[in-house]
Amino acid sequence: MSKLLICVQLCAQLSVTALFAPGSTQAAGYSIREQSVEAMGSAMAGAAAMTDGPSAQFANPASLSWIRGNRVSAAAFPIRPDIRAETRSPSSTVLGTPITGRQKVKAEESVTTGSLFFDHHLSRDLTLGLGITAPFGLAVDYPRDWAGRYYAQNAKLETLDVNPALAWRANSSLSLGIGISFQHTRTEIGTALDLGTINALPVALGGFGNAFDALGLIPGDPDSDGRLVFRGKGTGVGWNAGLLWRSGGGTRLGVAYRSDVHIGLDGHLDYDLPGGELISGGTGLFRDGKGELTLRNPGHFSVSLVHPTGLRWTLLADITWTHWSVFDNLIVRAKDDSQLDVARRVDWQDNWRYSLGLGYSASDTLNLRAGLSFDGSATREEGPFTAAAPDGNRLIATMGMSFSPDPSFGLDFAYQYMRFEDNRLDRDTILPEDSLSGNVNVRYRSSAHILGVQLRWSF
Q1: How far is 436 from 279, CA to CA, in rounded Å?
Q2: CA–CA separation, 9 vs 262, rounded Å?
Q3: Is the Cα torsion angle 260, 261, 266, 272 positive or negative in sign?
Q4: Are 66 and 50 in contact (CB under 8 A)?
Q5: Which of 16, 134, 302, 384 could bridge to 113 as Cys pair (CB 3.0-4.6 Å)?
Q6: Are 80 and 23 contacting, i.e. CB atoms less than 8 angstroms apart?
Q7: In this predicted structure, what is the pLDDT of residue 222?
Q8: CA 370 → CA 14, 43, 69, 88, 397, distances in Å?
Q9: d(Cα 36, Cα 42) in Å, to the nearest integer?
């Protein structure tokens, strides 16, 4: 049989959007920017110009220069996404047979992320910092029998970042900072395989030519589906740098950059097929084996402003560019040359986030803040789009507070509501790369509620 058609099918299903779905993410693509509860409370407005606590070093390592003594902070971020997918018209295979399954589903999976930061004043002008964060991640899980399962089914991604940094205060107004980012990523991607359709297609078209009719395979039937899962893990190294300028009146301007990080993941491709070893033994394909995947976590560039008005109010602003266009193609390679590689055109675009915020000093121990943000989509309007990536422009509203009953101890709280623009996956005409996934028309409505709780200590 032809490997080409099967490879195209796997390319469409094991796609980058299944890996980087926004099920539990807080920024465009699959990034998680809310590592600091203070910055989260203002919708990231002013993040690269903040000096409130040790967590400010994530947005800008130069912020470390404006501290004395030692500080540590620990935060938790429970994330409750809501992703609803509704099939708008009957789905069918390339053979015209109906794809049976649920028409209305929810795909989210609640998760909790966290962060830990430490800084230490080495000398009058040098400060050392350390951040442990989860800057990239997702958790999305569709029901096994939903109508779009041949486009996406489930995905998980976890990234741990360990980021030591050093800041130098050049003078009373300017500081510089630089850091090294060590990232470790684990992922699991799962998708359904329409073996009923593959079996019914003639050999000349890349199918099995009804060779496995004895298994009772039915096109588009979830009971006839196979399943493919890739699990892998790997590490990569990047860097970050920034500068922070402060005027005599307290206005601060921060500029920060974080590099792309290349990560090679080694793992395993596992197939679950009806009939056990009968299909893989008869075709020589769909055999379990080792695989590898290369990711490139994108870098970003931020400019932030913090401006005290002198009347207890502080104005905050931020603009951030993220390098999502590094995703042109994603390839999962089988280390066994007799098995199929999986390649997918991604074609994501760079995006911009714009944030405005307001802070209010209610007392010496209580500070309040709020913010609004617009975060553009990483997917192109006319680019590749699959059921696992109902991505779109995000509107974000936040509020937060910081309470410091003692100079050596503080509590921070924040709440964020994120709303995605409605998106659709329309496949009335089956594209060549989706030939075995069938046609599907799905409307997505997505949102997320996120809490942030943080403890700060100084010693």
Answers
A1: 17
A2: 27
A3: negative
A4: no
A5: 134
A6: no
A7: 92
A8: 39, 7, 29, 38, 8
A9: 10
Residue indicated by tokens 């080409």 = 4
User: What is the predicted pLDDT for the residue at 268?
Assistant: 93
What is the per-residue pLDDT for 385?
60
**In the structure encoding, which two tokens stand for residue 456, read together?**
């700060």
Torsion angles phi and psi, residue 39, rounded to 5? -70, -35
| Domains of the chain and CATH, by start | 3-458 (2.40.160.60)
Q: Which phi and psi (to 5°) does residue 229 adopt?
A: -130, 130
Classified as helix, coil or strand, 138 is: strand
Determine contact, residues 267/233, Cβ cutoff 8 Å. Answer: yes
Contact 109, 152 (CB under 8 A): no
pLDDT (0 to 100) of residue 38: 95
Which pTM value belongs to this model?
0.88
CA nearest to 458, candidates 64, 65, 66, 68: 68
The 3-class SS string of 158-217 reads EEEEEEEEEEEECCCCEEEEEEEEEEEEEEEEEEEECHHHHHHCCHHHCCCCCCCHHHCC
Written as six digits, the tokens of 294 are 């290369």
The number of beta carbons lying within 10 Å of the beta carbon of residue 120 is 16
Residue 332 to residue 107: CA distance in whole angstroms: 24
Residues of the chain where predicted confidence (pLDDT) is lower than 70? 1-27, 204, 338, 340, 342-345, 382-390, 425-435
State how far the alpha carbon of 225 is from the alpha carbons of 64, 126, 192, 196, 220, in Å. 54, 60, 6, 7, 8
pLDDT at residue 384, rounded to an integer: 63
- Please check whether residue 137 is in contact with residue 24, taking contact to mean a CB–CB distance below 8 angstroms: yes
DSSP letter at 340 equals P
**What does the alpha-carbon distance between residue 341 and residue 336 come to, in Å, rounded to a whole number?**
9
User: Among the residues of 325-397, which ranges form H helices?
Assistant: none
What does the DSSP assignment read for 242-311?
EEEEE-TTS-EEEEEEE--EEEEEEEEEEEE-TTTTHHHHHHS-S--EEEEEEEEEPPEEEEEEEEE-SS
Give 268's contacts (C-beta < 8 A, 6+ positions apart): 230, 231, 232, 288, 289, 290, 291
| Token reading at 347 | 């074609």
Contacts of 381 (CB under 8 A, 6+ apart): none
Phi, psi of 54 (to 5 degrees): -65, -25
Distance of alpha carbon 95 from alpha carbon 330, whole angstroms: 28
| Residue 95, amino acid | L
